[in-house]
Design goal:
2 copies of one chain form a homodimer. By secondary structure, chain A is an alpha/beta fold. The first copy, chain A, has 10 helices and 16 strands. Chain A has helices at 127-140, 154-165, 184-198, 216-230, 233-239, 260-275, 278-290, 301-305, 325-337, 361-378, and strands at 12-16, 20-21, 27-28, 31-38, 48-52, 79-80, 85-86, 91-95, 110-111, 116-117, 148-152, 172-176, 244-246, 258-259, 311-317, 342-347. An 8-stranded mixed beta sheet of chain A has the order 1-4-8-5-11-12-15-16, with helices on both faces. A two-stranded antiparallel sheet of chain A has the order 2-3. The first copy, chain A, has a two-stranded parallel ribbon with strand order 6-7. In chain A, β15, α9 (325-337) and β16 (342-347) form a beta-alpha-beta unit. The mean pLDDT of chain A is 95. The first copy, chain A, starts with 11 loop residues before the first strand and ends with a helix. At the A-B interface, α3, α4, α5, α6 and α7 of A face α3, α4, α5, α6 and α7 of B.
Chain lengths: 379, 379
């Protein structure tokens, strides 16, 4: 463990006993949120940063769960003492959203009304429901205002929604590799992934747990599609090219040629399908598809952002084609027109949408510089 | 039926009783090819054009099969009297390749050695095997030299291979939306499609016909992935945007929102999965993945093209991201370095890879102009 690690961290489970109304019109009678914190909350509670996770993320963003834990949290490269999200300056809060499958209430939880897992009966969620539940947690933690709400992809959508729903409770909004709304192509990729899941015979209309099974193959295919499209053509070319894992191309050979990219994707799909919940995957991709920041503001993002009070930092990556720089520029253009303070950086990076999770010097410098400014502001 | 239609056409089935050696080292003991012709072969048999089909294509490229036939052949917009591939000037030959599922010998045919459908035991094929079987048909038709071999995508790979294998039998090679070899990303999309098929429980290791079933769902997912990636982001945005087919976004609604792009893709998948053979899909995508024009020429396409004698016309489409203009420029650059005559045009088009099949004035003009030059040459 390096000096820049937050070290061993322990997830906390917070139970909320009051029903919460959801945007779909239904209620969750009670729920729990699992979260972790890194770094100390200062005396005036003004240094808290909320991390919003994306599609397959969870609360464990940094550090390790034990001495023998070989894999750190999903954003460990960016969160820690001296790292871009500097835990010697900030108190970082990272939770698993409701609807998730890592400890917070979601489709694998027991529905108290039936005594059985919610499964497909778990309510549809929108980003605003996550914002509301995150705000409940904020109140439990005694935090009045986030120094920053930070998120990539679907997390960036939550960060933007925070800035509109609770404008006086967010000082900075960091929106990484995100969009005001998805394009038809992006929706289509999510839909093919969902179709792979729901057409799996083990899906049982989403009530697979009651049938003691999981739609493993559908989830595996869904992940392969997702993983492939979150990488860039150039990145895959550099890493795998047309290199073979098995077989050869000699004329006269009928043996199974296998490209490295093929076995890599199958492996990614296998691992994911054993650890993630299929209903959560459907629910999260639906929330992505349905998100449209400006829908309730006459479809005008400028009107929408006029409701915010915070400053924004927007980041995109050159080879990200599912949340392309063009989508980030739409956010920036609307913020400028709404006269909101905004900084924007487009990072040269080879790994498509996944770049937001990966080491990249210029990205690290940019995020660090912005957040150091946020830290100075308080003093 | 317009004046520019080739009218009612009748497929012909040609049986080849001699075994043919394949590049995998195995033999096909016998086989048949289904083909159609449009336009008259001239006296010196110098006006024949061979059309090579792509992944899901077949022999029926133009005209109708009956008066009540509502849908013309797959390239009807480009083949006919007065059309870019002008049947008043050329004798056009269009066949279903071996390994196909539209009448030529393929995985759904009976293996004479077992009396059962070939299924997964059908030999692996490479582009060169298609060239060889196309050449057998050429000999039956008494044609000594093609005025042009024309193909899009996988068809363009066959056209290039023709020009290297039988250089004195091809005067012009028209290579549309193709590549010298696939990128890792392109292979990855094919692999996810194949995984959808082979992981379908009805696949039975490729011997589904012997189990009286078909892996319909896997094929449906494969087609959805293919269709989605053969379109462009802009094209999908223009055609579908975020328009809804069902449901609404009102807060308080938990009803099933359905985007138009979703039902469109599902429909495409449904139709395809009822008409195409899964083993053929696997075989064709494998041939795409394995194709590497220059592999046997020290991996140098310049060396490869020095073996050819024909002129080339190369076409790409701006929004085609699976066979992007960059891939076509690699072909053109190698041809220039090999001192082969080559014309190249990059067509502004909104519909991605599918643009090669769709109406487009500039593409029509370019193809027409090139082939009229080919026709004049003979006189």
């Amino acid at each position: 463990m390096s000096d820049q690690s937050v070290g061993i961290v322990k997830p906390v489970s917070q139970h909320f006993g009051q029903p919460i109304g959801l945007s779909c019109g239904r209620q969750l009678p009670e729920y729990q949120l699992v979260y972790e914190t890194y770094g100390e909350l200062n005396a005036d509670k003004s240094n808290a940063i909320l991390i919003c996770h994306a599609l397959s993320g969870h609360h464990h963003a940094a550090g390790y769960h034990s001495d023998s834990d070989s894999k750190p949290g999903w954003w460990d490269h960016y969160i820690g003492p001296g790292k871009p999200i500097d835990t010697s300056l900030f108190h970082v809060v990272s939770l698993n959203n409701i609807g998730g499958c890592n400890g917070s209430t979601g489709p694998t939880s027991i529905n108290p009304e039936t005594g059985k897992p919610w499964g497909a009966d778990f309510p549809n969620l929108r980003c605003r429901d996550w914002v509301d539940t995150q705000r409940q947690l904020m109140q439990v933690l005694g935090i009045q205002q986030w120094a920053a709400v930070v998120g990539g992809s679907l997390g960036g959508m939550q960060a933007m929604r925070w800035s509109l729903m609770y404008p006086d409770q967010v000082r900075h909004c960091v929106v990484i590799a995100s969009a005001l709304k998805l394009t038809a192509q992006n929706i289509a990729f999510n839909e093919v992934a969902r179709q792979a899941i729901v057409s799996d015979r083990d899906f049982h209309g989403g009530h697979y747990l009651q049938h003691n099974t999981i739609p493993k193959n559908g989830l595996r295919l869904a992940r392969m599609i997702g993983h492939l499209t979150y990488l860039s053509e150039d990145g895959m070319g550099e890493r795998f090219g047309r290199n073979l894992k098995e077989g050869n191309f000699s004329i006269g050979s009928d043996s199974g040629v296998e490209f490295q990219i093929e076995s890599y994707l199958r492996h990614q799909g296998d691992v994911f399908s054993e650890s993630f919940d299929a209903n959560t995957y459907i629910l999260m991709t639906r929330a992505l598809d349905y998100f449209d920041l400006a829908r309730e503001y006459d479809d005008d993002p400028v009107t929408a952002f006029k409701h915010s009070q915070c400053s924004y930092f927007v980041v995109s990556f050159t080879t990200d084609w599912r949340f392309s720089p063009a989508r980030s520029r739409e956010i920036v253009d609307a913020l400028i027109a709404a006269k909101r303070p905004v900084s924007y950086t487009e990072i040269e990076a080879n790994f498509g949408h996944d770049a937001f999770l990966l080491p990249n010097t210029r990205y690290e410098q940019a995020l660090r510089a912005y957040l150091q400014g946020v830290a100075r502001e308080r003093n």
